[in-house]
Amino acid sequence: xxxxxxxxxxxxxxxxxxxxxxxxxxxxxxxxxxxxxxxxxxxxxxxxxxxxxxxxxxxxxxxxxxxxxxxxxxxxxxxxxxxxxxxxxxxxxxxxxxxxxxxxxxxxxxxxxxxxxxxxxxxxxxxxxxxxxxxxxxxxxxxxxxxxxxxxxxxxxxxxxxxxxxxxxxxxxxxxxxxxxxxxxxxxxxxxxxxxxxxxxxxxxxxxxxxxxxxxxxxxxxxxxxxxxxxxxxxxxxxxxxxxxxxxxxxxxxxxxxxxxxxxxxxxxxxxxxxxxxxxxxxxxxxxxxxxxxxxxxxxxxxxxxxxxxxxxxxxxxxxxxxxxxxxxxxxxxxxxxxxxxxxxxxxxxxxxxxxxxxxxxxxxxxxxxxxxxxxxxxxxxxxxxxxxxxxxxxxxxxxxxxxxxxxxxxxxxxxxxxxxxxxxxxxxxxxxxxxxxxxxxxxxxxxxxxxxxxxxxxxxxxxxxxxxxxxxxxxxxxxxxxxxxxxxxxxxxxxxxxxxxxxxxxxxxxxxxxxxxxxxxxxxxxxxxxxxxxxxxxxxxxxxxxxxxxxxxxxxxxxxxxxxxxxxxxxxxxxxxxxxxxxxxxxxxxxxxxxxxxxxxxxxxxxxxxxxxxxxxxxxxxxxxxxxxxxxxxxxxxxxxxxxxxxxxxxxxxxxxxxxxxxxxxxxxxxxxxxxxxxxxxxxxxxxxxxxxxxxxxxxxxxxxxxxxxxxxxxxxxxx
Length: 721
Prior knowledge:
By secondary structure, the chain is of the alpha+beta class. It has 18 helices and 26 strands.
């Protein structure tokens, strides 16, 4: 390769060629003015732009060359550029050029000073580039209006409020006056009319605003008939064909109902937009906006913006309508979120009563099966009534079920529920669009875990009434321990209380609707204790007697009563061995498990159980520093294998590669069991695996369990049958 060639500086012919190209080929208008701001040259693109004369304009001032814009502002800007030498970029000017005097255009002007080659003070003039940015300006304005409309319209689930938000936005952002008329059936929460609209179908004016009046003018509110479709008017035609209409002729009557028959389109009107409120293919009503004769008339761009805003309002209106209609179905939803019946378990015998109030509420109850034959009893109460309370209840009940499957302690369950409730409250506040409004729907809950092997009862409360304990001898006690704040406050700790219960103890969990309120009797909690303390009754009879004594009449608030009589798993259902920390003991553990299964008549499960025992005990020996406890539980239709150690390291299921020498133990356990898991204990952890019992054995054991009375008993005695 040769030496690089030094580039030669461009000569004058380059400058002349560039200047000629700018004045003949550039698509933007280019103007050169002298020190007196008189035109000395303009390019081809500038000639004829928005009324610029095609003939020679040399020597004329720029204001004479570009008519319809603010000449003084343009020349003042050019003078500053000439005096200071500081260029100006994107100097926007709006005007009405003679080629289209009824439509506003926007020009962007960029200018810089021209200087000679000599002294810096030798100013020649100014070069100005003019670009038509009307399209960009209108697009930007449209986006800003739509963003503002999105922020101001549809902030509440109230149809009248949404209509008022629309007229509040439209005046003065779009128009001088606006009205919103909705079908009366829509306002009542019904379905909007489908198909051709009948002439007698009534509308109701729900919002009106005029720039010349103070605030919203609601004088036109009230039922008004839809005017006849024959002959058609722009108003009625928009309802029928769902098309917005622009009326620019002052003499045209759009047929808007109202005082004097004309409404927004009176003698002051300059132009009118008729906007059908259509969503999902049906019309909810009509919005009408107008500009007075002294305002700029509407154009097609205004129609497009207004129609899009009206479409958004229609969607918000329909959402509000659906929300109001769903209030009527809240009761069905709420009942559907409650358990139809509680499961039959070995740990407790249960009965319950759900007492509905006048409106759908947020009370719920549940019985959840846990590992180790344990059960969790849950009763909760969401403040308020209606759809919000019912849906919140459903969310909390689902969350409790999920947290219970994680084998968390009662205080930890309530802590996580508290976080969930706080997040739900924050989301509802943002949805309402008003952080100062009272969107906090408080909730209370009691979560109780009973272990039938140890007969330990552990519970925690979040702002909930204390459980009542009835011992086998009839002595009653209010369990005040485990108290904590209501759910949703955030940041406050929960504490669990623990106690050992004698077999046959009765636990009563309930909501405050049972013992509080106008319909509850005086000293309701004392009456509840006295009724439950009577021996010899079935749980179903105890439920009925308690409800009759405490809440004899139907009340405003709903209520729940859940009774559970405890049972224990005896030695014929539980086998426990304490094993030393020695790998050689794994074989002994398999042998012990096999012998116990033979004693229980479960030889068919020996192979899989011994395999799981081997893997779980080996895992415990590997990570533990003390003794290992192996426990087998025969419970109902299940066989449970549990291994306890003093390590808190939780195992994780992973798939091993072909070259790995280990890591397959938990995979084998997962394949051989119906379900498996881990839980933390006071001294470490437990790993457990559950297998189904053979069908004949399971059927025999399940038949021995008493059934919960179920939903047939979930009726308020004070309510009509």
